[in-house]
Amino acid sequence: MFIRRRGRNLLLSPLDWALIETWQERKIPLHIILRAIEKVFDAVDRQPAKKRTVKSLLYCREEIEAQHAAWLEMQVGKNGGNKVQSSKFKVQSSEDTSLPKSDLFSEEAIAAHLEKVSAELNAALNKTEGELKTILGKVSKHLAELRQKPYAPEKLEESLEKLDALVDESLLQNLETERIKSEIEKQIASYKNKMEREIYERTFDLMLLKRLREHAEIPRLSLFNL
């Protein structure tokens, strides 16, 4: 949606992907993110002569945070004051019309995703050695087991996130990172003062892991990459 509204057939930047993964970690519902992006672009389109353009998802972050906060407050009210755990896989009920209908997480889509990442993971496994190869072998075995029987998207995502975390830990322990860290610091230096420290540090870490995965040609397993 973001690329479609930009009107340019361009890939997302590493910073954009890091922001997406941050929202994923916090389990901000997908419909909140999409609705906020639409609102930001609608506001920009109404400006005379389009004096501003949206070049990064960072431009949409404030609206996403505001809509997420409002959504959480509304959910607490619906549940008698109990704390609500949000989820991007929240199933639409007859009383909840805010969630768009989608076959994004259909059995067919999930099966195709698992087949794709399994093939990519095995290809990466054949190119690695040492401890990283051992870990990838374990992850590949677990992934094969997950493909044998159907799981609810929420349950499957929990398992995939644990496998992704195992891969991330092994990458940090077994690959050289100093040069990449230096490159990332230069790349996002202009954003440092625009982000809260915690968010900046997490974004940095996610960009580092993304670069390490690209270097080792290891896919992310999470359903968020469907």
Features:
mainly alpha; 9 helices; 2 domains; 226 residues
Describe the structure.
This protein is mainly α and 226 residues long. The chain has two domains: 2-78, no CATH class; 107-225, no CATH class. The chain has helices spanning 2-6, 14-25, 30-45, 61-78, 107-125, 130-146, 153-174, 178-187, 197-216. Residues 82-102 have low confidence and may be disordered.
Terminal Cα span: 14 Å
The H-and-E topology, N to C, reads as HHHHHHHHH
What structural class do you assign from the helix and strand content?
mainly alpha
The overall strand count is 0
Task: Give the overall form.
Answer: globular
Biggest sheet descriptor:
none
Sheet-strand content, in percent, reads under 5%
* Number of helical stretches of at least 4 residues: 9
Proportion of residues in helical segments: 55-70%
Poorly predicted sequence stretches spanning 5 or more consecutive residues: 82-102
What would you report as the Rg, rounded to the nearest angstrom?
19 Å
Count up the domains. Answer: 2
Mean pLDDT: 77
